[in-house]
Amino acid sequence: MKYISIETSCDETSVAIFEDNNLIKHYVYSQIETHKKWGGVVPEVASREHSEKIAHLLKKLGIKKLDLVGFTRGPGLKGSLLVGKVSAFVLSEFFKCPIMGLNHLEGHFLSPELVRNKIVNKIKFPCIGLLVSGGHTELWYSRGYGNYKVIGKTRDDACGEAFDKVAKILGLGYPGGPIIDKMSKLIKEDPKIFTVPEVKNSFDYSFSGIKTQVAYYVRDLKKITRKDKLRIIKSFQSSVVESLLNKLDLAVRKFGVKNIVVSGGVSANSFLREKLFERFKDFNIFLPELKYCGDNAAMMGVCMYRRIENGIYDGPTDVDDLLSGDMKNFKCI
Q1: What are the C-alpha distances in Å from 320 to residues 9, 13, 35, 70?
Q2: Are 248 and 128 in contact (CB under 8 A)?
Q3: Do 2-120+293-329 and 127-288 agree at the fold level?
Q4: Rounded mean pLDDT of the chain?
Q5: In 3D, which of 164, 151, 176 has the Cα closest to residue 254?
Q6: pLDDT at 92
Q7: E strands, the chain, where?
Q8: pLDDT in tens, 307-333
Q9: Where are the domains of the chain?
Q10: pLDDT (tens digit, 9 = 90+) per residue, 256-290?
Q11: How far apart are CA 88 and CA 296, in angstroms?
Q12: Concatenated DSSP letters for 268-302?
């Protein structure tokens, strides 16, 4: 079976083609350079860039035959999602094949199962999943493919969003996550300037407070040196990672599991990975390859494969049906 996955939830335009459990081709066009001048993603610009790039990327796949097409339905930016959805409907009509709407976060959750361009049975269940990215920070309890329960989430900023905002406060550039990860390695000691974010009696997260701590600390310094920036970065990253792992620790003990999945863009953070393995030595830990941590169509292909394999054709979505009229007559599974 040949199938295509399309991912356009935010600012990466990505397409992938699979044959059974093998990834044949995969392309990602990143809009980072476009959005750098604003220090964050501008939704209108993102959707326009998707519409300009997606046809070119699909052409590069060299599609001759297609049995199924999948696209990210949500969550994400509505304009960006619409570009992927329309592209999927066009392919469905052209190749006379069914179409499948996918949940972006399920794609992230399953991304560790793509190993050297092959989908493998890697994740062990039951497990706790920590999905941590620029737009989402959630804890999931999962008993198997398609069986997910959100047990905790951020009450304000997502973790990756906090990284970007702190980098902006310090004038480091965008995106902030990779910059902070790299610069934090230039200083050994942790000055422990900031408190560890904590939401008591809950699996939830909150990162707006530590962002405000950084802003006030920088304001009070009046003049900030490079050494000051390194100390701020180190303490901020250390406090955020400790917060992430504290709730993860609470969850695995509450649900009595020995399996942990950590995925999403922030899962590429080297300090998070280091502390994860230090703290959970006796657990089975599943992480995506670095190239599959960010938004990409390959992870959505894994989602498609597992849904087909387990007979799961409908998934949760935060997106309204943006298409109407004749397009509702398209065959969907």
Answers
A1: 14, 21, 26, 17
A2: yes
A3: yes
A4: 91
A5: 151
A6: 94
A7: 2-7, 12-19, 22-30, 68-74, 99-103, 114-115, 118-119, 127-132, 137-144, 147-153, 259-263, 284-286
A8: 999 887 654 443 333 333 333 333 434
A9: 2-120+293-329, 127-288
A10: 999 999 999 999 999 999 999 999 999 999 999 99
A11: 16
A12: G-HHHHHHHHHHTTTSEEE---GGGSSS-HHHHHH
Q: How far apart are CA 26 and CA 291, in angstroms?
A: 11
Single-letter amino acid code for the residue at 331: K
Distances (CA, A) of 156 to 86, 210, 255, 281: 31, 11, 25, 31
Region 127-288: CATH code = 3.30.420.40
Higher-pLDDT residue of 197 and 320 is 197
Per CATH, the number for 2-120+293-329 is 3.30.420.40
pTM of the model: 0.90
Q: Six-digit token pair at 1?
A: 């079976």
What six digits make up the tokens of 88?
């999927």
Residue 215 vs residues 27, 143, 287: alpha-carbon distances, Å:
38, 41, 32
Smallest Cα–Cα separation from 290: which of 271, 265, 272, 259?
A: 265
pLDDT tens for residues 33-65? 889 888 888 989 999 999 999 999 999 999 999
Alpha-carbon distance 149 to 127, whole Å? 11
